[in-house]
Amino acid sequence: MGDVVVGTCSWTDKTMIERWYPRGISSAEERLRYYASRFDAVEVDSAFYAIPKREYAEAWVRRTPPGFTFHVKAYGMLTGHEVDAAALHPELRDAGHAFVLTRRGRVRDPEPRMVERAAELFVDALEPLVLAGKFGGVLLQYPPWFTAVDREHRERTFAAIDNAVGLLDPLPVFVEFRHGSWAEPRSLERALRFLADRGLNFVAVDAPQAHGVASMPPVSAVTGRWGYVRFHGRNRDMWNARTQSAADRFDYLYRPDELAEWKGRIAEMAGVSERVWVMFNNCKYDYAPRNAREMAALLGDLVAPRAGGVPTGDPVADDVEPVGTAHDPETGRGEQLGLGF
C-alpha cells in the first residue's frame, strides 16, 4: 500500500503570487521556502517553455528541505510542441540547426539533432535535483493532436514516446495524453499495456468535459511505480480558447464534492503503487494550494507525513494577508516564465 503526496503545478504564477503568499514574502527564495514549508512536492511547468539554467535547479535544492520533490514538465520541443524561438537555449539558437520558423516566431519541425541536443541540455539542467535526491520525474505531456483515432496515429505517438524516453534516459517519466480518443476502450488498453511494458507512469487527469471538447476523461490507472493525477480544473469555456495568460485556462476552484469524486480513485491507485502524486494545475489565484489542502484533508491518513513544516491540510495559509498587486522588483525574464529562480 502506497501513500499520497499532494502539491501544485506552480509556485510562481503571477496571480498565485498576488493572492496566496503572505505580505512581506516578495523574493523568489522566500516564495519557494514558504511553499516548501506547506507542501512536499511541486511541478516545474515553466520548463515546458524554456530549458532552465542549471543554477536554477541548484538554487531550488538549497531552498527546499530534505524530502522535497520536484517534478519537471518536459521542454515542449521534446513532446512535439512548437516552442518560442526567442526563448531558445543559446546552444540551440546558435548551432545552425534546421527548423521551420513560423510567422508567430515559433520553432516547428526541428531536425532530430536539435531535439537530441535539447534533451541533453534539459537533462543536464536537472542534474542538481537528481544528485540531491529531490527529483521525481519528467512529465511528458503530449498535445491534443497526438491522438489514437486510428492505428497509424496511435503508433506514431508510441514511437514519439519511445524516442523521448530514450533521450531522457535514465530519468523516470510520466506520460499524459490530452486527446479523448486515448480513453476509447481498445486504445486505452493498448496505451496502458505500452506504458506498463516499459515501466512508464500513466498520468490521470481531471479536465473539462463537454460536447465539442476532445479532452481526456478521468481514467485512474497505474502502469509503473507511481500513480499521478493532475487537476486541470473544469473551465469548459476557456479550455481551448486562445488566452493572454495560460493561467486563464485553469481559472477554476473545485468544490468539495468534486474533489470527493477522486477520493476512492486515488485510494485504489495508492493500493497498487508505491506513491500517488496528486498535483493541482488550476494555478489561478490561490485555487491550486487551496484545493490541494482540501484534498489532503479529504484523503486523511493516506497522505504521507510531512517532511517538515506546516501539515499540508493546515488552514493557516488561508488566514494570511494577500500580497496585493504591487510590482515585484525581482521580476525578470525567468520570473515571467515562472522559473522562480
The CATH superfamily bears the name Protein of unknown function UPF0759
The average pLDDT is 88
Q: In the CATH classification, which architecture applies?
A: Alpha-Beta Barrel
Number of DSSP-assigned strands: 11
Give the overall form.
globular
| SSE ordering | EHHEHEEHEEHEHEHEEHHEHH
Number of helices: 11
The helix-and-strand class reads alpha/beta
What does the model show?
The protein has helices at 14-19, 28-36, 54-62, 90-93, 112-131, 151-168, 185-197, 256-260, 263-271, 287-299, 333-336; strands at 3-8, 41-44, 69-73, 83-84, 100-101, 106-108, 135-141, 173-176, 201-206, 226-231, 275-280. The protein has 341 residues and is an alpha/beta fold. The protein has a single domain (3-332), classed as Alpha-Beta Barrel (TIM Barrel). The protein has an 8-stranded parallel beta sheet with strand order 1-11-10-9-8-7-3-2. A 3-stranded antiparallel beta sheet has the order 4-6-5, with no helix packed on it. The two termini are 36 Å apart. Mean pLDDT is 88; it is low at 315-341.
